[in-house]
């Protein structure tokens, strides 16, 4: 991936004149070019430590060149991109180390413990919560443990419908391997094209088809992790009552407890048919109530998302048509499966949504959404180029608190970003008992856009905790969410996590400063 932008340069969004005119009107166009030619700081690891790494993974897999170190610096949140655009590479690792498999990872962790070297597991690098910006003070150096060589499909069990994957597989690579067996995982976060299997597990990711396939953590039946004090293999059966579920200790552990070296997931037959369509609702509340009705009746489609009035009006999915998308609230529904499954679920959903007052818009909005579903992050770069601050955040709550959460977070963002800012929202994931709200903001960049965003983010995070919601539904904790995470889980929860950390990583070499409050 480009070190200062999302994805690949070929896919970059070029804003059409119509959109540029609207951006100018809303925020005032300001040229905001990225600094080029910045180099990472001096390598802190001395030659004998680098030789130690080389002895474990081989000379070719210990990389210390500027370009590789730059590419493994931080993740892809807007503050990460703003720092990268400003030429700030202070979080660059001293070396990038690429193990070939579980045993080399385990040896690396033992070596790092002995030599007090901090280790940051690196999957796809799409983290948006500071989970790749570990603390380095008190350590002899910091290495990025890049899982890029661990890309095998280790096993397929067609009887149980499970597959065991190595962590370095990116979303499309995993899907391509599974497609060879007629299977799919069905996990499509917006970062799908670049994020990895290990990253999905380590952050408890949730994809756009979560209504049909479930969150990533719900797909995982077993996993193996190398920790500094030994290997943990968990998940001996589809379900059990053998004490607390230790899979859940590793899922969402963000590289702070161990490095996930294989993941066994539940898989499904690749869908023979897919069909996406749009619905219009008179209000966000009416559309949300319809989603709740479907979820509680057990009638969810594979994909369901609902934009609020502002997001519907702005129509971010299609840069060529920004600002031109009509009234009310747009809902996208999608169906995947056999032709019979698609037809029957679509008929059931259509009956319920029509009864509740939804207006069917046909296939066009659905197809447009499906076509552009991985493209929106490129729009952020185009807007950053023109001096617009763009960022997202997400949360989740129970249905009975949805309205308050929406109002409070929106008010917090609007008042802290000031007049002229845009705050957009959609319901991104739906459950029987509640849903996730995903906010996108845009504002004119001030002199210090990172501080500007941090103020807004803190206000929104306070509002989430005050409303009894979670600080994150699927982006994870990283470093950015740690203070609010501590408030969410309470003092005893914090002590439990610290105790686990002390047991699995007594020297604290794994992702220092990430996750654990
Ligand atoms: C544009 C954009 C869109 C996004 N959309 C979504 C979305 O729709 N849904 C969603 O859930 N998230 C989304 N994200 C967030 C991000 O893609 C997810 O958190 C993803 O799961 C991270 O995977 P990764 O492979 O890139 O992990 P990385 O960014 O490499 O790492 C994330 C964290 O996990 C740790 N880690 C990585 N691999 C391992 C491993 N094998 N063992 C232990 N620890 C490990 C890292 O140290 C880090 O702390 C989005 C991000 C961006 C930039």
TrEMBL record:
The keyword Flavoprotein applies. It comes from the Bacteria. Keywords: FAD, Flavoprotein. PROSITE patterns: FAD_PCMH (PS51387). InterPro entries: Alkyl-DHAP_Synthase, FAD-bd_oxidored_4_C, FAD-bd_PCMH, FAD-bd_PCMH-like_sf, FAD-bd_PCMH_sub2, FAD-linked_Oxase-like_C, Oxid_FAD_bind_N, Vanillyl_alc_oxidase_C-sub2. Residues 89-270 form the FAD-binding PCMH-type domain. Belongs to the FAD-binding oxidoreductase/transferase type 4 family. This is FAD-binding oxidoreductase. The lineage of its organism: Bacteria, Bacillati, Actinomycetota, Actinomycetes, Propionibacteriales.
